[in-house]
Amino acid sequence: MRLLSSAFGTPALLGACLLAACATTKMEAQWSNPEFHDVKLRDQTVMVACQARDFTVQAVCEDQVASQLDSRGLKPVKFAVSNSGVPPTNEAIEAAAKRAHARVVYRTTLSTSIPTVSPGPTIGIGVGGGGYRGGAAGGISVPIGGSTVSEAYAADAAIIDVATGKLMWSGRATSPTGGDVTSQLSDLTRVMFDSLSGSGLF
Questions:
Q1: pTM beyond 0.85, yes or no
Q2: Which partner for 52 in 5, 58, 78, 166 could form a disulfide, CB atoms 3.0-4.6 Å apart?
Q3: The domain 36-114+150-196 is classified under which CATH number: 3.40.50.10260, 3.40.50.880, 3.40.190.10, 3.40.50.10610?
Q4: What is the chain's pLDDT, residue by residue, as a tens digit (202 residues)?
Q5: Widest distance between CA atoms in the chain
């Protein structure tokens, strides 16, 4: 027990360490279509489309996916930039991919957990009165900071062959709860492409 305490400190700190170890961005599952095991996508044009709840998250997602593709020798074309204000429906993405002469579509669907709201700190002001018969007590809480909203993102990604419409690869990654959306999306994209590296497509 003494050795354990010296390594991790208090039991509460040990619990926090274990919780932090579990709360990581991770790949939950992936699948590759054996029909495309000999296909190499290097130097090919890729249409990048993200389905998100708002345009900003969609654009951030597409930026990060495009950066990963570009670093691996592919030629990404971002759907959001080419089709501003157009929702990323199957028909719209297919039409955009054909206009760009894309070999494949890299599509991501983002979902979130139920938001967790952490209230900001407050100052409590207590009011009390003594006496056997007429005692009274009360308090006022004054907020001194705004609430923090945290969500956990999940990404379902797919690589689709434009010519046949067949699914070539798919995967799902999840992130822990956090308030920084950009960092969460960056971690999800990195984990996704780490797994994709073993698919042979790149």
A1: no
A2: 58
A3: 3.40.50.10610
A4: 444 444 434 444 444 443 444 579 999 999 999 999 999 999 999 999 999 988 899 999 999 999 999 999 999 999 988 887 788 899 999 999 999 999 999 999 999 875 445 454 544 445 455 444 444 444 444 444 445 557 899 999 999 999 999 999 999 999 998 878 999 999 999 999 999 988 889 8
A5: 88
